[in-house]
Amino acid sequence: MAYRKLFIPVDGSDNSKAACEAAVRMSQSVEKLVILAHCHDPIPQRIQGHALEVLEEDLKEEADRIFDECRVFFDNANIPVKTIVLYGSQGPALAEAAEEEKADIIIMGTRGLGNLGSLVLGSVSNAVIHNTSLPVLLVPEKKED
Description:
alpha/beta, Rossmann fold, globular
């Protein structure tokens, strides 16, 4: 099966960039679309009005910075990129978004810049695996030579 639509959660970590590099290596002559997704924790409902607008703008700017760091891998390989910003519990939100986007595969790093809860409760990649029926390719942490 040729994977045509690749869904890649990114958080700015070296491991999410390694997942982008792996996706480029997977892209041979088959036409591809890469979907970069960044997931923020849910915004508390008590934040409203101007404070909410400022927070949403800050989170959008952070996501755009992360997308720009990853987009270069695909621009250099002439692979089109779509970006989406999500809010919610990272594992379930990313898995649901990948399925809504009709992705063929999810490619992600094994370690990222997740919140403290991911250290205590388990990794985001583990949560994605348990919340999707899609194949998931985990790219291990780069080892120093």
